[in-house]
User: What shape does this take?
Amino acid sequence: MSLQSTGAGPADLNAFVGDYFPDRSLPSDGLIVQSWYRSVVEHGLEPAARGNKVVLSAAEIHRHQDFHHDYMSIAGQGVSGLAKRVGQAGFAVLLSDEHGIALDSRVPTTGSAYADSGLIVGSRWDESLVGTNGIGTGLASGSALIIHRDEHFLRENDRLSCSVSPIFDSLGNVRGCLNASCLNSNGPKEAQYLTLQLVIMYARMIENAYFRHSHRNTLTLMVKPCDEISDLANEQLLALDDQGRVIGANRAAFVEHETHGHGVLLGRRLSDLLPVDVDELLRLNNGGANATRLRVGTRLVEVGLRMPVKVRSAKPADSRPTAGIHRAPTLGQLSGADVRLQQRVARLYRVLDKDLPILINGETGTGKEAFARAIHQASRRRTGPFVALNCAAIPETLIESELFGYRSGSFTGANKKGMKGKLEIANGGTLFLDEIGDMPAHLQTRLLRVLAEREISPLGADTPLPLDIQVISATHQNLSQMIAGKAFREDLFYRLNGMTLQLPALRERSDIGSLIEAVLRDQPGGEHCRIDTTSMALLSRYAWPGNIRQLINVLRYAVALADNGRITTDCLPAELLDQAQALHSPAPVEARPPLARLAADDEGQHLLEALRRHQWNITAVADEFAVARSTLYRKMKKYRLVAPNRLS
Assistant: This one.
C-alpha cells in the first residue's frame, strides 16, 4: 500500500515527507514517494540509519551465477555495450536478477569507490534491505526511472545517481534489472535522462535476445508499423505454438496489447491479433523468406517470420511450408539405436498420462532435462507449461519462495504484487525438479505434503489452490544411499518414484558412433563436417565423464578447428588425446600377452586379417562385414586390436 493508493492528497504527501525527510523536498516522481513510504512503513527502515549492505559469499555468487547462466550469457553483450558507451563518463553498469542481486558488474578503471558503494557482483539491492534505490525500486515498480542523489532512501547512498530499466521475460514477468550508476553527480536530475534512454534501449535489446533464445525452437513473429521509422528495440515479437496461440511475447508486444485494451495476450490465437491464421501467414511470407504487409484496423503493419532453424533448413525451397513447429528432441530421437534405452522408453510410453511421478536417474550430462521435456511433449499435458527448477543451483534462501511463491504483503521485502511459485506456474502442465537430491530437508517435508494433498498454499494465501501437475524429478545421486544416511526422506522418495528411467552414460551406449554423428549434425556448421576414422575411434573409446554435455562441447571445438570440413585428431581437445594415449600406450612385455594369442578365436583372427587387408580403414572393414562402425570398434576393443601407428 502507498500514500497515493489510500487517496492521500498533496498535503498528506508533504506531511509524510516532512516527518521522515525534513531536509528533503517532495520528489516530482510519485514512484519515488511510494518507495519512500514502503521503506518506512513496510520495511521499517530509517533514512539516517546505516544500510545493511548484504553481499553474497563467493560460493553463493558462483551458485547464483550458475543458476542464471543463460540469462547472464545473453545479457552480457548488452551489459558490455552499455558499459562502453557510459563507462568513460564515470558510470558503473550492473545487471541484477529479479531479486535485486547483482550478477554482473562493469565499473570504471578507478573502481574502489564504486566497490565501497556496493556496486559489485553479489550485492543485494532489494528495497527491504536498502530502501529506495535504482535496482530495488525499478524491480518493485516494474518501471524505468532515475533515482538521483537524495532521492535514495538511505542518506549514505545520496552520492549515487542511478538510471535503471527492468528486464522482462517472454511471459511478462520481471527477469532482472539493468542499471547505470555514477558517483558525485552534481548536475540536475534532468542531466541523466540521456543515460536513462541508453539503459532502456539496452534493456530492450537484452529482452529481445533473451526472447529469441527462449523461443529459438518455435515460430516467432516480428511486427512493426509501416508508417513509422521503426525502433528495433521496440519491435513487437510473438512466439506461437503448434495451434497458432501466443506462448510468449516481448515487452513491446505486451505494452501494445495493454495500450489498446485487448486483455490477456498469452493464449490468444494469431487470427485474433492479425487478419490471417498461421498457414496463411506462412504462405504470404513464403515460409519466412520475406515480410508481408497487413492492415490491422486503421494501421498498416509489416509482419516478418522467423522459422526454427531445423524446420527452415529441412524444407526444400519449392515446397509449401507448413505450420509444423520444431520442438526439443522426441523420446524416440533421444533413445537413438541403443536397444536397452529403447526398451526403457517403450515402458515409459505405457505409463504416460497415468498420473505417475517419474524419477530420472543418470550421470551429469546424460540429458535428464532433455528427456523430461520429451516426456512432457509426449503427454497430454504438452499444451500446458513445462517448468524446470534446479534444486542444486538456486540459493537455499530463495528456493522456498521459488517453489511455493507468496501473496502480496506476506512478508517484509515481498514484491508488492506477490510472486507465483514454480508449483503454481506449472499447474496444468509438468514440473521438473532437477537435482532433487539437493533439496533442503525442510522443503522435502513441504513438497511431500503438496504431492500427497494435491494442493498448495502460497505464503500469505487465504485458501489453498488445487494442484494438477505431472512431476518429473531427476538426480545423479544414489537416493537409496541418501535415505540410509538420513539425507533424503524415504516417504518423499516413494512419492517421486512412480517409475524410474535410468539413463545410460555415454560410454555405455551401444549406438555411440551414430550418436556422435547425430550430435555433430546438430552443431552450427557441423552438418558440413566429417570425422575421420582415427578421430571417430578416439571419440568412441573415450570415457566421457561429462557425457553428452561434454560431447557437445568437444564437437563444437572440433568444428571450429576443422579445415575444409574434415575433423582430424588435430581438432580434438588435449585431454581427450591424453586419455587415449594413456589407454593405448605399450604395456610391459610381461604384463601384455602377444597379439596372436589375443586374436586366437576365429572372429578376432578374421577381423585382424580384414583390418590389415584394408590398411586399417575402419569404414571399409565395416562395409565388408556389413556392420556398423560402432560395432566394429567394440570388437576391436574386445580383441585389443589397435592400428600400428597408435602403438607408439
Remarks:
- The two ends are 77 Å apart (CA to CA).
- The CA atoms of residues 587 and 593 lie 9 Å apart.
- Residues 58-205 form a domain with the Beta-Lactamase fold (CATH 3.30.450.40).
- The chain is about 40% helix and 15% strand.
